[in-house]
Structure formats: structure tokens, C-alpha cells
Design goal:
This is HmuY protein. The chain is an alpha+beta fold. It has three helices and eleven strands, in the order αββαββββββαβββ. It has one domain: Immunoglobulin-like, CATH 2.60.40.
Length: 213
């Protein structure tokens, strides 16, 4: 049997195996009905962070050590979305904001990079990024990209807190719910899809953390 005939025989065996597998299939799985989704994309203006940060970390910082930090420091970020190579588009993104007390074990600072020296070695905010009753709908964005800029005092006024009660490692957090042009609304993303320490291409949240350095 020459090489050409062997190749044809192998293709025939593959085709027969695939046909047999399909003929035996009697269960339809949910994952087979997948849809491609648009996902939020955040770009932080790292030059305006009061302390050094990395774009891939999706976090900025306010430094409470500066006497006038409340009105002179800024958290600036731009919201857009990943369109899966132009195959899906966002109709709107609901932006939610909340103030949160520090976790029991906040991420260490300075930020350490891993994974080829590109992404932070630990997630910078808690997951899952669930929209809760404590999250306030701040704005519905319909034109992209959209840039936001806030001082600590402005954010404190938005969520209704007194800056005098803030402690190091407390943080403001923005979360997103995206509605695609077909009407599908995504209000929570799988943890592994938006964990910045894994370099995942979905920015389901971003925020600014208080430090005193």
C-alpha cells in the first residue's frame, strides 16, 4: 500500500469513527449551546496613580500620607469592551460602585509580577465579582470608550462615606454588567475569566485602594 492510499485509509477511519460517535449520542449538553460574549475592558491611567502600579493589575492607589490627597489625587480609567474579533458588540455596560473595608489579607504592596513578568502574582480585588445590594448603579455607558476621573472626595460623596473613617487598604470598587446588542445581559463572569493574576481577557471589575506610604 503506497503512502497516498494509507493517508486515504486513515481519513476514512477518522470519518467512520466520528459518524459512529454522532450516531450513539443521545444527550444534548448545555455547554454545546455556547454563545460568544463581549466582555468589559478597562484601561487605567497609571500615571495618575498616587503610587506605582501596573496596567495589568487593574488597580490604582490613593496615598493618605499626602495631606491634601482628598482633592488633588485622581483615579482615572477608561471603559471599553472586547468584541471577540468583531463578532459581538456591547449595547451598554452598567457601571456599579461601592466602598469596601479592607480584606482580612489584602494583596501585598508593592505589586509583584509573575507569569513572564507581565501580570500581578495575586488578584488585586476579591472574586467573585458579584453585584450585591451594597453596589450602587453609577452610570449606564452606551458609547465607548468612556473615561472616568474621580478624586477621593468625589468618590466618597458618591457612595456617601466620610473620608475620615477610611483606613489603609480600604477601597472603592467598580463592577460591570454588560448587555450585548442581541439583548443578552451578563451580570457576573466566571472567576477564571477575570482574574488579573491569570492574565484573563475580561476586566469584570477595577478599583482604587487606599495606602498610607
Amino acid at each position: 500500500m503506497n503512502r497516498k492510499m494509507k493517508k486515504a485509509l486513515i481519513y476514512s477511519l477518522f470519518a467512520a469513527t466520528a459518524l459512529l460517535a454522532n450516531s450513539c449520542k443521545d444527550v444534548d449538553y448545555d455547554w454545546e449551546q455556547f454563545k460568544i460574549a463581549a466582555t468589559p475592558k478597562v484601561t487605567i491611567n497609571i500615571e495618575k496613580s498616587a503610587l506605582p502600579t501596573y496596567q495589568t493589575a487593574n488597580v490604582s492607589f490613593f496615598n493618605m500620607a499626602d495631606a491634601d490627597y482628598a482633592t488633588t489625587q485622581e483615579f482615572e480609567w477608561t471603559l471599553d469592551y472586547y468584541d471577540a474579533g468583531g463578532r459581538v458588540h456591547a449595547q451598554s455596560i452598567d457601571v456599579y460602585v461601592s466602598f469596601n473595608k479592607r480584606e482580612s489579607s489584602p494583596p501585598a504592596y508593592p505589586i509583584t509580577l509573575s507569569l513572564a513578568g507581565v501580570w500581578p502574582n495575586i488578584r488585586q480585588f476579591p472574586l467573585p465579582s458579584t453585584i450585591r445590594s451594597s453596589d450602587m448603579l453609577y452610570e449606564t455607558v452606551t458609547e465607548f470608550p468612556k473615561t472616568f476621573n474621580h478624586t477621593p472626595a468625589e468618590l466618597a460623596e458618591i457612595v456617601g462615606i466620610d473620608l475620615d473613617t477610611v483606613e489603609p487598604n480600604d477601597y472603592f470598587l467598580f463592577k460591570f454588567a454588560i448587555t450585548m446588542t442581541d439583548g443578552t445581559r451578563l451580570v457576573q463572569f466566571q472567576d477564571n475569566a477575570c482574574d488579573e493574576s491569570r492574565g484573563e481577557p475580561c476586566d469584570c471589575r477595577t478599583g482604587v485602594r487606599f495606602k498610607n506610604l
